Amino acid sequence: MSTTPRVAIITGASQGIGEALVDGYRKLGYAVVANSRTIAPSDDPMVHAVAGDIGRPGVGQQLVDAAVEQFGRVDTVVNNAGIFIAKPFTEYTDEDYDAVTGVNSRGFFELTRAAIRTMESQGDGGHVVTISTSLVDQANSQVPSALASLTKGGLNAATKALAIEYATRGIRANAVALGTIRTPMHAPETHDFLSALHPVGHMGDISDVVDGVLYLEHAKFVTGEILHVDGGQSAGH
């Protein structure tokens, strides 16, 4: 019987949701390759930190190579890194487009492609989880963000496509579509406005996101699912 632990690759892992996901997967006994543009080495020998911009060509493959070299395999990818820029559509710049599509789309594409290749070669399945947004399902005039919908909507569609393409090979693909989560990126003076965007009247907590991702990790009969962790946003207003 193999003693090699299951291995997760988590992007955007240096703070907030990503940092909490690293802790969540470690509590499941997973080894973790943790990535962000700037990430400090971990004191935990089962967490291998790899600095790099996931939106740049080659970084996705680098993370998979690091997982195989360090821990021997890849079981799960959590595409958590993302860029969100809320602007009126005509005010987006070419630089905004390049930044958002680079991380949200290209980062997902390169890392997931490399990871699935490795999962296939291992022959015992795997899991891809991608963080998305409820704005794809329920646009909001108070939060104009067409670039988020362009990229994350594509990721939702790709999640379903991958779930079907790889279903017979035991590789699952799911997404977690978020409302606004209480993280340090949201200044306290914005909390009342952001809370009011949700039918339940408050923002989500980082633990809500971790719970959703880990539910999907355990849910072996669930694939192609877009799990909404959004305080009811996707249902309406």
From TrEMBL:
InterPro entries: NAD(P)-bd_dom_sf, SDR_fam. Gene3D superfamilies: NAD(P)-binding Rossmann-like Domain. GO terms for molecular function: oxidoreductase activity, acting on the CH-OH group of donors, NAD or NADP as acceptor. One of its GO terms (biological process) is fatty acid elongation. It comes from the Bacteria. Belongs to the short-chain dehydrogenases/reductases (SDR) family. This is 3-oxoacyl-ACP reductase. It comes from Mycolicibacterium llatzerense.
